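Hello,

Our lab assistant flagged a job as stuck in the queue for most of the afternoon. It eventually completed. Since we weren't sure the result was trustworthy after the delay, we are filing this so someone can double-check. Below is the sequence as submitted and the structure that was eventually returned. Let us know if re-running is recommended.
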Amino acid sequence: MELFGLPIVTVYLYALIISGVLTFLYVLFADVLHIDTGDLHFLNPVLILAFITFLSASGYLFERLSSLHYLLILGISAVISFILVTLLNVFILVPLSSAEESLVYKESDLRGRIGKVITPIPVDGYGEVIIENASGRIAKPAKSFDGEAIQNDTKVLVVQVKNGVLEVTVNQELESFL
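-- returned structure --
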């Protein structure tokens, strides 16, 4: 069988090389070339390129190693490719995308959080505060918002964050609340 004037084996090989290179380039430059597919997750470029790569690889191998009809080879290759891409999406891409979102925080998200002083904060000086959340602990440098000394193991409220430094305060109401 010939397609575009080339043997079908050559077409599979060219498709494999081109889709493999495009997949590699997309993975390298995914942040720059980000395409938002909304709720249509199956239109993710990684999945489409992986489907073409698996289809062409299995098609090439079946054409070289078997004497099956070319339409049967195309059908078998499409089924194999669909299964592999589904497994790739379910077991690799979806967990990676949810893990990335759960571990990221912005410093502005720390405002209003309650932390504990682990290194005492002197008057007009810096100490350290630890804030606990569901994904772990965050230890950040801190200074007193009111300009007062704050002792170790004191519960504090993060008022604002400036240049990576938490500005914290000890409020009597906060102490009685905790």
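-- support follow-up --
The delay was a queue issue, not a problem with the job. The result is valid. The chain has two domains: 2-103, 107-177. The chain has a mean pLDDT of 84.
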